Each structure stands twice: as C-alpha cells, then as structure tokens.
Amino acid sequence: LKKRGLMNMLVQSMENMQKDHTLRRDVAIMTYQMDSTNKVPAKKVQAIIDEAVAISTKFVVEAIPKAMEELGDDELVGCVVSAGDHILTRLNIKAKRHSEEDQQDQQKRTSSSTPTSNRLK
Q: Among residues 8, 14, 74, 105, which is most buried (max CB within 10 A)?
C-alpha cells in the first residue's frame, strides 16, 4: 500500500502502532532481565512465546481477507515469527523457528516495504 501511495493514513497508523509495539516489547524484555527474583524457566518462556506466535499467526492468516492479499499475509506471519525469535534471542533463549539466513531474508523483505520494520531485528 505504501509503495502505491494508497491509504496513507492507514499506513501511517500502522507504522505508529509498530513503533508502540516495539517500545512495549523492549520495555518488557528489559524489565524481565532486571528482575532476578522471579525468573520464569527458559522452557516456560519459550512455551509462552511459541503459543503467542501460533495465536498471532492464526489471526493474521484468518483475519486478512483474500481480497486484501496484497498486504502480504506471508510477510506479516514472517514478522510475527521474527518478533518471537527476537524476544527469545534477547532473553538468551535459543530461537528455534528460523535459521539466521531465513531471518536475514525476512528482514530484507520487510525493511524494503516499511521503514519501521527494521525494529524487529
């Protein structure tokens, strides 16, 4: 949509929501890292992230009507998976969904379409 100059306000709103989401994610990660008294086991954290990624992926796939496929549900699913991997990596938990090459390919695709998508790295 951005490349075609369509729905400029929607694109701007989505970019602002992405910035807000990134900030909230980073604050949550930092808060978790600073609290050494109530650490959740790594397996539990990974299970929580895996479940969140599965729910978000299902939502993206089911919520985007076929008429709006140009939004790229594959790219959105890739962003969800990359965000989950990013959280696990920042928490020093091995991310298992993507290889490093897959993540780099995804980042290249999304960074060319949305300037704020590079925050998912």
A: 14
